[in-house]
User: Fold these one by one.
Assistant:
Number 1:
Amino acid sequence: MPTATAGGPAAPGRPGPPAASRPHRTSVVRTRPWLAACFLLPALVLLGALVVYPIVYSVYRSLFDSSGTGFVGLDNYVGLFTDDGILTAIRNNAIWVVVAPTACTALGLIFAVLTERVRWGTAFKLIVFMPMAISMLAAGIIFRLVYEQDPDRGVANAVWVGVHDTFNEASAWPGARPRPGSDLEESGDGSYTTAAAVDAAGPADLPLVGVPPQDLAGAADARPAGPSGDGGVTGTVWVDFARGGGGEPGVIDPGEKALAGVEVEAVRGGEVVATATTGEDGTYALPAEADGARLRLPAANFTEAYNGVNWLGPSLVTPAIIASYVWMWAGFAMVLIAAGLAGVPRELLEAARVDGANEWQVFRRITVPVLAPVLAVVLVTLVINVLKIFDLVYIIAPGATQSDANVLALQLYLSSFGTGADQGAGSAIAVLLLLLVVPVMVFNIRRLRRENRP
């Protein structure tokens, strides 16, 4: 029978020495539960006072009427889906949840990828991230001014009007109209036409009014038109109004101002036979073809100046506010995605390029899939954030269109502390918001557990 040699294995059939037993670790919670309770008690008290109690009380309060004394059961919850204002808030919240997080995440991804290879990428990221340092209140005030209707105050309309006027010529004298009692009559499309035909025998003067005095500051004095040498029609277009009163209607009095740049058309049988434009002194001269025609001042001479877009009107107020939110939070998404992008193995990217993939294929098939966990974190965080959006909507939306931009958090405030002060309905909205947030939180927790699973 073989025996074990020194330093060799034990003989077959004979058990080896027992393995060293590992020390058994006992948790602190089992050995000293009072110590664990002392550490957990402050956190549990705060959690109960700031989270659990408000939730329980909100559910309880939502079952009572506005005074809090009459039990109404689920009537407040039924009202959530029958009240037009609350239904608008629910619809707007759905728009916010779909558009705002997606836009922020997409812009953050684009910024992070494009600035990775440029020398000034850090400076660009700093600029994009800077709005995060501004409070919602300050951002709301900023964008309330940005969206002002007056182009002289609102940046958005100043840019919009500038672009519009670059490609569309502005009218010569917006708001001008014929003097009452003159031969000019409205044609129905914003233009003005003489009631009778004109001829070369005498000047065909066209008196107008309605031009603000400040617009006439640099205008020259009007003067009568002389006869045309080729049998054409001449005349003057001027503001038939003398400062300080006086003057004779239909007559060019001293000091009355000329309207330069006005287009005058000669119309015969519905067709334009000749056109002319007034000079600095308001005079115009039409060729002989205008003899016997009627004169028309096209509507393009008098259309009101373009004042841009009503950004805070009923149809655009929600997209405008979402744009301000994206301005603030795109930097947040960019920073998180850039941090995840720094951890992407460069070997994968280089291997794909060596295999012939172009940059778009590398981005779509490698960068985005590898960054999927980071993108999910950003998207879920922003979804939770927009579900409780309040400040921007309350500050940016004017009173006339606040109902069109309404969201659940704002409706909660208005229902609880507004004119009606119905805290039962407000508590029901709070419970609805909680129910909307819970699935997102559950998804986030499951995702974190799945990522931490070995």
Number 2:
Amino acid sequence: MDIKKYKESILYLIFGGLTFLVNMITYVLFTRVVKADVLVSNCIAWIAAVLFAYITNKFFVFKSKETDFKYILKEFRAFVGCRLFSGIVELGIIFVMATLMGINDLFVKIVTNIVVIVLNFIFSKLIIFKKEIQV
């Protein structure tokens, strides 16, 4: 197996796993310790995860070398825009399954993260961390 061929995907899975941990730890902290609402906690966890993911994806996964401030703002805007879409999908699934259907919120959060990780990889690979940002 040629590891170089799959390096980007492997790194995405590693940092995606770490982003998942940031997301889950923040979510559990706010739902269980702070006793915040499930949807509010999810939004806070989403913000923490997006910031962590942008930094790790930019520098370690997709190795975006651009350092021009205007370019970084454009790249970050595209990143947040795509993550906003997957975040809304996640919020919708949590609302329906945990709030309306009464399914355990931690179970739902874990399941939705699988969907979100796949969506985010596609967005990052095809839209955000290309040589030319399509914004």
Number 3:
Amino acid sequence: MKNRQALIAAALATVCATAAAADKPAEQEKCYGIAKAGQNDCATGTHGCASEAKSDNLAGEWKFVAKGTCEKAGGKTAAPAKTK
């Protein structure tokens, strides 16, 4: 009976360790100019909430992407210059 409990405990520990490793998010960066309408990740100077981009690919709207993939997707990692 003790061997069975030990095997179950070991199996559960393995499952938990594997799940914890799989949940670790990849490094991300802000990518400006690639968000589709209604799919931006956060507020900008023109609105205060995520999912409020009015049209596709606006320069000031951003999304989180995997680090190193922004420019490949046609975006920029630096915020656009502010205009007066």
Number 4:
Amino acid sequence: MWPRLNRDKLAQYGLSVQDVNRTIQTAFAGQVAGQVFEQERRFDLVVRLQQSYRQDIRNLRQLFIATPDGRQIPLEQVARVEVISGPSQIQRDDARRRIIVGFNVRGRDVESLVKQVQQRIEQRVKFAPGYYATYGGQFENLQSARDRLLVAVPVALLLIFLLLYATFNSISQSVMIFTAIPLSAIGGVLALWLRGMPFSISAGVGFIALFGVAVLNGIVLIGYFNQAQGGRHD
């Protein structure tokens, strides 16, 4: 509920938009007029209308605005006051307005749902010039985490292979241990499929831990073989 000011009427009475907004804010929200001291405590003295005069839209229409020549005119003479649907608040990001539409995802993965939403928006929604849609929340976190994993996982696998070669000084044994990584992933993928769970960042971290366990098992196995053969390397 907010008045739509008639600027022509305001000009006739010598009023400005700021004068009207300040009067409305003082009457309904309150305005600090001074301070009250009680011993060591200090309180703001707020001036506003009594509760009975700020109940509904009629009180707003009948709110008197003081003109520069000393007259008092009701707000409805210089504005159209009506109840309309609108945003509860205006948020900005990088000096641009934004509207947030939020929802929770249940029973399916976030990525496929966002792709379906993007497809529907492209087919059914035509944005005015300057408007566009972005996707945040869990999907944004998923994208950023995936970008980091695309860098971290290959680097970690390369370091694992280099450490294996430095430990056994044998390319064949390092490759043999390294083959445990893709083979261990088969069990992880099968477990996700049996549970009906989509791949997520948590699952990706679990796969990394699984790769580490598989490599450790391979190291123990190859180390035992080398020890049984007297430390002989191929």
